[in-house]
Amino acid sequence: MYEIFKEILHLAETKEPCVLVTVVCTKGSTPQKDGAKMLIRKDGSGVGALGGGCIEGEIWSQAKQLLKEHGRPVLRTYDLNEDFSARDGMVCGGTMSFFIDPLTTPHSFETFAKEILLAYEGYASLALATIVNDRRGKHVPGAKFLVKANGIKLGSLGNETLERETIGVAGNIALHGGKIFFQASDGTDIYIEGFQTRPALILIGGGHVSRAVSRIAAMLDFDISIVDDRKDYVQKEDFPDAKVCIVSDYGKCFENIPFTRNSYIVVATRGHRYDDLALFAAAQTQARFIGLLGSKRKSMEIFKSLLKEGVSPEKIKEIHAPIGLNIGAVTPEEIAVSIMAEIIMIRYGGDGCSLKMPASKVNANSLNVPKK
């Protein structure tokens, strides 16, 4: 996403028109979910992805046509049960709605793009509301209204009543993140999307598991910080993807690290005593996720210590210990996969279960296989 908005700024500087396509609503099984984006340039090249196959090709073609004709923004909905599924060999079976927004003058979106990039970089989070469909012809599709978590507002939907109806939802999303496609009381379809700083991963302890976790987290676009009380264990060559390498006593290691609800802490020090110090400090933060590497027995012993030190039972219950999903991991790299899988699950609200269909669903009747 970051690269898409950076490119919009670049195109604004060169006064080159483009089209921003956003998946604003999905139902059922689809190759992409709400919020997926693609920026299509005048020459047909693009940044981002909408799911591939014929559906992406169709959207691409429409976007280029809108640019050519200086067309207006439009909402398009496709049923993947029909032609597109058959042509691509997909078995998604859902529906996808795309908002195709021609930025014929990218500088008109420039202010929004700058604010979104600032939100990604750690400044005030925000929500951007866009009119995507107007059944009664009262409003302008593509009109935008930005609400920042600090209360600042930019842009306009062109109607005070509509903005009043939208601002509460947008303000909540600016604070807590998320996205929503909803219908206003007058039937106008509005898409609101939150933009926050990139997720931050703070690794406490510079051992083999933390090194492996860092490599995977970098691929998932996390800002990574590594903390250890030994200088030799926070070397840049061991953590090339880390934004910050800190040598600090574990009890004070979070004093100079900014925290948001998009921060995730993994405690994996070299021993029980150090884990205790780090977890006590972590419990004082507002991190969204705190996890401890180790056995159930070790976790219970540390929980007892935290309770004696004044950490509330409610806060202790929030700690993920032992950290990770049960995938039978053994090596540091496998354990790292388990850890990041759990963090992704928490971040997006998954359940960690296998996606495999139950055996009862896979039979001759469900597959429409004729009996011999």
Automatic annotation (TrEMBL):
Q: Specify the protein name.
A: Uncharacterized protein
One Pfam family here: XdhC_CoxI
Q: Which Gene3D superfamilies match?
A: NAD(P)-binding Rossmann-like Domain
